[in-house]
């Protein structure tokens, strides 16, 4: 009987601990699954929160006031970004002042960015380093002497969009080269109609893109330009297309000799 008791005890404990281990593993598996589900929920919530925040920031920006101009770039007053980019019933957009920055590093590579999918105009498209507007209500950005107001606005926006410290770029670092006049009605609801000041900047800078504005950045080389543009998986903005087609290559080939290409009194119309 002793042997039977011992046998019974051994089987009892083996069965008991097996059950406990199985229960522990089951609970752990359920916990782990729950933990991962919770982590997934948290990640989803974070993405949704970030998207909502980006959309809210874009909507707030629509209240900023741009500078209205005539076809000769003479100021006519102001209007909100919303009014300046809304396509009217007759298929036009209010003409306003803008700028485009082309940023090159010391090796001569050019930065392009992919606009956030939350942008009101031309979302999720590739373009030059920074495209924006001087604002009517910001002191100094209406200063037309040597395009100083435009340069100040460019410094502000490079900081906001790409996180470039304002200590690394000063207004005098931008090379103002010319202006272009173009109109594109985009999706028929939001479009562009701008006198666009072209600014070129060659400098090594620290970059930390603002995700509500920029979803991707990359530097491209001059000798790979055509290939890299053809491999992009999203369209180009209309102004970038125009400048790429008509002017960019000659400016890029002469970064050290840009002064001879200045056309400060001209407005090129496309």
Automatic annotation (TrEMBL):
Its EC number is 5.3.3.2. PROSITE patterns: NUDIX. GO terms for biological process: cholesterol biosynthetic process; isopentenyl diphosphate biosynthetic process. Its cofactor is Mg(2+). Signal peptide: none annotated. The keyword Hydrolase does not apply. The keyword Signal does not apply. Catalyzes the 1,3-allylic rearrangement of the homoallylic substrate isopentenyl (IPP) to its highly electrophilic allylic isomer, dimethylallyl diphosphate (DMAPP). This is isopentenyl-diphosphate Delta-isomerase. GO terms for molecular function: isopentenyl-diphosphate delta-isomerase activity; metal ion binding. Keywords: Cholesterol biosynthesis, Cholesterol metabolism, Isomerase, Isoprene biosynthesis, Lipid biosynthesis, Lipid metabolism, Magnesium, Metal-binding, Steroid biosynthesis, Steroid metabolism, Sterol biosynthesis, Sterol metabolism. Belongs to the IPP isomerase type 1 family. InterPro entries: IsopentenylPP_isomerase_typ1, NUDIX_hydrolase-like_dom_sf, NUDIX_hydrolase_dom. It catalyses: isopentenyl diphosphate = dimethylallyl diphosphate. NCBIfam families: IPP_isom_1. PANTHER family: ISOPENTENYL-DIPHOSPHATE DELTA-ISOMERASE (PTHR10885:SF0). Pathway: Isoprenoid biosynthesis; dimethylallyl diphosphate biosynthesis; dimethylallyl diphosphate from isopentenyl diphosphate: step 1/1.
């Amino acid at each position: 009987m002793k042997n039977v008791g011992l046998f019974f005890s051994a089987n009892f404990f083996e069965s008991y601990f097996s059950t406990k281990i199985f229960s522990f593993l089951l609970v752990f598996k359920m916990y782990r699954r729950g933990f991962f589900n919770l982590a997934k929920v948290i990640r989803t919530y974070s993405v949704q929160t970030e998207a909502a925040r980006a959309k809210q920031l874009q909507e707030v920006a629509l209240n900023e006031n741009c500078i209205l101009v005539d076809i000769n770039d003479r100021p006519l007053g102001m209007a909100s970004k919303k009014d300046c980019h809304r396509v009217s019933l007759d298929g036009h957009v209010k003409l306003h002042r803008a700028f485009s920055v082309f940023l090159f590093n010391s090796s001569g590579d050019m930065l392009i960015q992919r606009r956030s999918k939350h942008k009101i105009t031309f979302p999720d498209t590739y373009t030059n380093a920074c495209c924006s507007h001087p604002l009517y209500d910001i002191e100094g950005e209406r200063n037309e002497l040597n395009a100083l107001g435009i340069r100040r606005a460019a410094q502000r926006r490079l900081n906001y969009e790409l996180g470039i410290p304002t200590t690394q770029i000063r207004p005098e670092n931008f090379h103002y080269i010319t202006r272009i006049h173009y109109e594109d009605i985009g999706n028929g609801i939001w479009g562009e109609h701008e006198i666009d000041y072209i600014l070129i900047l060659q400098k090594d800078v620290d970059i930390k893109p603002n995700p509500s504005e920029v979803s991707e950045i990359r530097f491209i080389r001059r000798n790979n330009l055509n290939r890299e543009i053809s491999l992009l998986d999203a369209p180009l903005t209309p102004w970038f297309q125009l400048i790429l087609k008509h002017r960019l290559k000659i400016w890029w080939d002469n970064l050290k000799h840009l002064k001879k290409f200045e056309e400060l009194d001209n407005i090129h119309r496309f």
